[in-house]
């Protein structure tokens, strides 16, 4: 999978997220053995850099389609990387990474843990019907003091180079005009994160239009 980073067809996702890497560096400064998660791997451009920064320490959990994770696992193993776990889903209509996240939350609750990840990078399909439940689950999975990074904050179907109605006319059969024009991740953040007193927005350098938004789960009082 990693060879796709040199394929012009994947140019938009061939560069690792600098915000995600900088936030991981912050986490590593406080905890050299963090447990982190990436929800939606793209072609692995950010994943491989996460793994290099971890340098065999801690653990990374990866959530995406099972066949994508199988391909990436081979690449990571070939580089000598072993500190990762994969949680794959099928391409059936109502299956997604949300189901895998839900099962992990269920296990976490049974173990009476208050979060298991020090950092979660949610870079999924950026559609409300998938990423609203994913966000609610990630809010539980991130530890107090941990960081949740939401990608594609400003994305909408209307601006998508591959999904906008002028390119994919059938999209209007599945989404209303309002759903096409609305930035779904921004809506999710407004509904479930911005007003939650347990989460604070982190300054990651934007001074204008945001493409990503980061949050820290506030630590419990001493």
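Q: What amino acid sequence fits the structure above?
A:
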């Amino acid at each position: 999978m990693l060879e796709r980073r040199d394929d012009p067809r994947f140019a938009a996702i061939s560069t690792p997220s600098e915000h995600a890497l900088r936030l991981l560096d912050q986490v590593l400064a406080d905890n050299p053995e963090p447990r982190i998660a990436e929800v939606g791997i793209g072609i692995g451009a950010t994943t491989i850099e996460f793994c290099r920064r971890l340098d065999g320490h801690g653990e990374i959990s990866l959530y995406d389609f099972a066949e994508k994770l199988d391909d990436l696992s081979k690449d990571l193993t070939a580089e000598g990387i072993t500190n990762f776990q994969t949680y794959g889903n099928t391409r059936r209509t109502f299956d997604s990474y949300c189901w895998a996240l839900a099962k992990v939350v269920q296990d976490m609750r049974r173990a009476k843990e208050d979060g298991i990840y020090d950092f979660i990078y949610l870079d999924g399909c950026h559609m409300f019907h998938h990423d609203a439940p994913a966000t609610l689950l990630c809010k539980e999975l991130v530890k107090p003091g941990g960081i949740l990074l939401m990608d594609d904050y400003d994305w909408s179907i209307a601006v998508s180079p591959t999904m906008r109605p002028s390119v994919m006319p059938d999209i209007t059969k599945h989404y209303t005009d309002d759903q096409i024009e609305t930035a779904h991740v921004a809506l999710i953040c407004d509904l479930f994160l911005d007003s939650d007193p347990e989460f604070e927005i982190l300054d990651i350098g934007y001074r204008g239009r945001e493409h990503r938004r980061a949050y820290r789960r506030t630590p419990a009082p001493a």
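Q: And what stands out in the fold?
A: Residues 2-152+197-217 form a domain with the Rossmann fold fold (CATH 3.40.50.150).
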